[in-house]
Amino acid sequence: MDERNPKPGPTPSEDVPVQSYPGVESKMDPPADHGEQSYRGSGKLEGLVAIVTGGDSGIGRAVCIAFAREGADVAVGYLPGKEEKDAQETKRWVEEAGRRCLLIPFDVQQRAECQRLVEQVTTELGRLDILVNNAAYQMSRKSIEEYSEEQVELTFRTNIFGYFYMAQAAMPHLKPGAAIVNTGSITGMDGNPELLDYSATKGAIHAFTKALATNVAAQGIRVNCIAPGPVWTPLIPSTFDHEHVVGFGEDTVWKRPAQPAEIAPAYVFLASPDARYITGEVLAITGKSGTR
Asked: Does residue 267 have an active-site annotation?
């Protein structure tokens, strides 16, 4: 793909395999681009330490690769079990960039687990400068009647409770100049008829970002949010039906979903001193004019 013109980029193939949640990178067709061959760092995060929840795959992996190439050590929080292989691949790329990488399986829904993760990172890597809240759960449903109590609770506990708990755990370790970057979604602005609970949590993340930014501003800590549109990650073939997956991203200007590598540079910017005047912002990266 010509990086100056994203229009000809890859789209999901007609025979893309539908996966079970949470999906794995090795079954993606076409394979997702996390910047493995394209991202070039320039020392923007030299000597810093970052936590990226959900850093095993998708946007999280792309952020880990970019952070490492910018000079940061990275801790990856991931769901134990099916995400282990993807997490190991993320670690390989981080270490290839010459940085340290911790893989920490944990349950983002549990406050004690979030505290354990942060304590392990600060003990083993010595500091914490950047928190990227990125772990997420979604499962599409056709009608509101189909949402079970268990699914709604799982979605909220993962997508917004987990962000709250991670920020609580991180705050005692963050110094002036530190940054929190949350992953929101265009669904938090426009909604999605098949992702009612997910859309609600993403809207909550946007509001949480703005509120927390004012809450911690006096401590010199910045809080911002990236709200992507369609992005080609394992969540898509593992949570939507085949028809939706094949047409995924066709409503954008570029007629395709973004690749994770096209979203990660925004996380670098918001985590770096280049964004020292920016806080409480929700940056929508949607491949569209406006948010719709």
From this structure: no
